[in-house]
Amino acid sequence: xxxxxxxxxxxxxxxxxxxxxxxxxxxxxxxxxxxxxxxxxxxxxxxxxxxxxxxxxxxxxxxxxxxxxxxxxxxxxxxxxxxxxxxxxxxxxxxxxxxxxxxxxxxxxxxxxxxxxxxxxxxxxxxxxxxxxxxxxxxxxxxxxxxxxxxxxxxxxxxxxxxxxxxxxxxxxxxxxxxxxxxxxx
Length: 186
Known about the structure:
- By secondary structure, the protein is an alpha+beta fold.
- Among the domains are: 49-90, no CATH class; 123-182, Roll (SH3 type barrels), CATH 2.30.30.
- It has 2 helices and 7 strands.
- β1 (123-129) and β2 form a beta hairpin.
- The protein is rod-shaped.
């Protein structure tokens, strides 16, 4: 059976052990304050993802430098690449290249129009052979007859390139195309 102590006996016991209880109470209070302070501060020893990748790259560079230095001093390692050797993924001092922009292909330009057909307003009416061997081509425009020899200019546009017995080869001065005009027989 449990026996209860009178209130006076509790006070008398607290005077001798009161300092112990007060010490325990203060220790619990101090622990709670420290715990709440520690819970509110951000952790500093956990690295972020970018820091981890930087550390991994630095470690890979150091390892590559160490292997390079070893291969210089040990000739048997010079042309030996171990599969466990990790190459750095990228150079952190160089910006990444952007992919090239797609080139918009435009349709090819249309071909130039063909040169116009040679159709002089003058009509070829024949050829004349002089005694000196000169050959003239005769052209008629509005009841005017114009004699021209090879190299002559017709209507300020067409050059007489060659004169035959019943045809004339005309060259367009602007475009360079040629056409043969024959004598029309009635």
